[in-house]
Amino acid sequence: MVAALAGTGLAAVPAQATVTPPCPIDSDCGGGGDTGGGGGGGGTPATYVLQGVIQNEGYESSGQGRRVKIRGYSRLADSGNGRVDADYINVRCYAYDALGGYTTEYDSENNGALVDVHFASNFVYGIGGYRTVTVSCTHHATKNGIVYDTTSTAQINIPE
């Protein structure tokens, strides 16, 4: 899915990964409390979504070449899309040009809900396929001992 912002040339490409809780809602694991003393306890732990997004933040020119400015981010959210602090969260992105060159950026944070990188592709020259940059990001977070991983990819055609 690519959400383009009309008239801006900007696009956001989300990727989401969910983790199934160890005790699904429709199962019996979690302590029903219906036999003997006690009861309660257990239950289903919260389920979070790791969102991975790539955004085109515009272009820069130098002589005959142009490059794309990129933002990539990882965001941990609850089922209502509210931000949730992860124990650890990171993002690593690469921007590959048609000739095999690339640029990369990485960031991580402890006890944060969102981490992002801002970087630019290599300058590209020529026409057609030589002006396409492929951006690929890996997103990772941990929360309460559960690992969340996802990837996101976008192809950006840099205009002449």
Structure description:
The chain is an all-beta fold. It has strands at 3-5, 10-18, 49-62, 65-77, 86-96, 102-112, 114-120, 132-143, 146-157. The strands form two sheets. A five-stranded antiparallel β-sheet has the order 1-2-3-4-7, with no helix packed on it. A four-stranded antiparallel β-sheet has the order 6-5-8-9, with no helix packed on it. Strand 8 and strand 9 (146-157) form a beta hairpin. Mean pLDDT is 78; it is low at 1-41.
For the biggest β-sheet, the strand order reads: 1-2-3-4-7
Q: What pattern of helices and strands is seen along the backbone?
A: EEEEEEEEE
**Class based on secondary structure composition and strand pairing:** mainly beta
The N- to C-terminal Cα distance equals 25 Å
C-alpha geometry? elongated
Total beta strands: 9
Sheet with the most strands?
A: 5 strands, antiparallel
**Discrete helix count:** 0
Topology:
Blueprint: E1 3-5, E2 10-18, E3 49-62, E4 65-77, E5 86-96, E6 102-112, E7 114-120, E8 132-143, E9 146-157
Short key terms for the protein model shown above:
about 160 residues, mainly beta, four-stranded antiparallel sheet, elongated, disordered N terminus
Give a brief rundown of this model.
It contains no helices and nine strands. The chain is an all-beta fold and 160 residues long.
